[in-house]
Design brief:
Blueprint (H helix, E strand, L loop, with lengths): L1 H5 L8 E6 L5 E7 L7 E5 L9 H12 L3 E6 L20 H11 L5 E6 L1 H12 L8 E7 L5 H8 L6 H20 L6 H6 L3 H13 L4 H8 L12 E6 L12 H6 L3 E6 L8 E2 L6 E2 H19 L2
Parallel strand pairs: 3-4, 3-5, 5-6, 6-7, 7-8
Antiparallel strand pairs: 1-2, 2-4, 9-10
């Protein structure tokens, strides 16, 4: 909770690009320009986050400091304006990522990706389920605090701090789903959404209904990224903490990571959820963001040396 409550938002210079999608909708991108010839990184935020989430701003700041280009893709409905299509976003929706990644990978000879929380699940799932279609110049990826098993993590978050976090997310999620129903009458049950007290209920009555799942259990079981990790063919750092309040330590894919030459686990005992804060209170540092940048730089060095 340190970062959202006490971290000063890092300042970065960015431009905003509105990208039309093949299905007639739009995606908003926030882009920090780097130095010519330097790599680019695509970032994905978490549940109800945005390009202004502090960990996203922190990544932009760190990448700008080394001259790299940085692009944040905001999921549909997370840019302050409701999207046009009969859908929102969810933990396993990968078509927008595939569209944006292919567009920018074509512009930069060396391309990297990072996803946080829900965005990490989207990224890990895409890297595995679409391994043959990932652009060849994607050098490496990193996923932080991922709910590798939504069947466990989905209901778990509803119980954390007696549902405090779930209620926090529901305030904006329910509002968005009701607004979507105004665009597309009867696409969801407003009555059931108003009564939702858990994310499980929301995912059952909104996420599943809007995105073609039979119910919430079908959604959780089919969209969990852990089942796709053994297919990943891009060097990928898995950075998670055993004390993550949203994702129990039992969900960390230790055995899968041990069997894969492409997965590089960084499973720490402490760190919380997209937290990993250390240092003095007035000079706080963010270990996960530093590790992601260090991981990328390692692969840049390997490629430069022809390793």
């Amino acid at each position: 909770m340190w970062s959202p409550l006490f971290r000063r938002p890092p300042f970065v210079s960015r431009r905003v690009e509105r990208l039309e999608t093949p299905d007639g909708d739009f995606i908003v991108l926030h882009i920090s320009e780097g130095e010519r010839g330097k790599p680019a990184v695509l970032l994905l935020h978490g549940l109800e986050g945005s390009a202004n989430s502090k960990y996203i701003l922190g990544m932009h700041e760190k990448l700008c400091a080394i001259g790299w280009h940085c692009i944040t893709m905001e999921f549909r409905g997370c840019s302050g304006e409701m999207n046009r299509a009969r859908r929102l976003y969810h933990s396993g929706e990968t078509t927008d990522l595939a569209f944006v990644a292919s567009r920018f990978a074509a512009q930069f000879p060396r391309f990297y990706l990072a996803g946080f929380s829900l965005g990490g699940n989207v990224l890990a799932k895409w890297l595995g389920e679409s391994a043959a279609d990932v652009p060849a110049n994607v050098r490496a990826a990193a996923v932080v605090s991922v709910p590798f098993d939504l069947v466990v993590s989905g209901p778990h978050i509803d119980r954390v701090l007696s549902g405090f976090y779930a209620r926090h997310f529901l305030r904006s999620l329910v509002k968005k789903a009701i607004e979507k129903e105004k665009q597309f009458p009867n696409c969801v049950s407003v009555e059931k959404l108003r009564k939702a007290r858990t994310l499980y209920d929301f995912d059952n009555h909104a996420t599943a209904a809007l995105h073609g799942f039979r119910d919430v259990d079908h959604y959780y079981s089919s969209q969990r990224s852990g089942q796709f990790l053994d297919r990943v063919r891009v060097p990928t750092m898995l950075l998670s903490a055993a004390d993550d309040p949203f994702n129990p330590a039992s969900t960390l894919p230790r055995e899968i990571a041990d069997r894969s030459e492409y997965l590089h686990p960084q499973f720490s005992g402490r760190g919380g959820h997209v937290g990993f804060v250390y240092g003095a209170p007035h000079q706080s540092r963010y270990w996960a963001e530093e590790q992601v940048v260090r991981f990328y730089q390692t692969y840049e060095q390997f490629n430069a040396e022809g390793v």
